[in-house]
Amino acid sequence: MRAVIFLVILIGSLWAEGEFTEKRYIYALDKTTVFKGSITITKGATIVRYTSPEKKTLIQSGKTLTVEDADTNTSQVIDLSKQIDMSLYFSFMRSIYNQDFSGLETYFEVTREGETYHLLPKSEAKRAIKKMDITMRNGEMHRMTIYFTNQDVIEIETL
C-alpha cells in the first residue's frame, strides 16, 4: 500500500492548480488504468482529488498525509517523517512545481532537450525510478512520464 500511495502522491501532485489525466500501466498485471482528477498546490499543502474511476482525496500538509476514500468512506493518516521515500517525493514534486530543476540535481542527473527535461536518478530515487521525462509547454508542466524499475509506467498530462 505504501508504494501505491507514494506513486499516487508523486503523480498527482505536479501542478499548482488544474485538472489532469493519469495513465498507469502496471506491468505485473499487464493492465492500464486511466485516472482523472485535479490538484491544488499551496504554500502549506498539496491536495489531490481523484474523481474517476475512484473518488479519493490526498491531503499533504507538513509531515502528514491524509488519504480519504469517498467510495469506502474511510480515511488514513500517514506520518511522512516515518516514510522517507514519500517525504522525498513531496520534495521532488515541489521542485518540479517551482520549476527548480537544479533543486532536483541532488537526486537526479537533469538534462534538457528543448522543452523536455530528462531525469536519471542518482541516489535513493534509483530504488524505484528508472527515469523521468517532463515536458513543459508555455513555461508550465504539460506532461510527465515516469518509468519505474519494476517496469510500471505512469504518464500524467494536464488538461
Can you walk through the features of this model?
With 159 residues, the protein is of the alpha+beta class. The protein has a single domain (2-158), classed as Lipoprotein localisation LolA/LolB/LppX (outer membrane lipoprotein receptor (LolB), chain A), CATH 2.50.20. The chain is built from two helices and eleven strands. The chain has helices spanning 2-12, 84-97, and strands at residues 17-26, 31-41, 45-52, 56-61, 64-69, 74-79, 108-113, 116-121, 129-137, 140-148, 153-158. An eleven-stranded antiparallel beta sheet has the order 6-5-4-3-2-1-11-10-9-8-7, with helices on one face. A hairpin with a 2-residue loop joins β7 (108-113) and β8 (116-121). α1 (2-12) packs parallel to α2. The chain is globular. The two termini are 28 Å apart.
Spell out the key features of this protein.
159 residues; 11 strands; 2 helices; alpha+beta
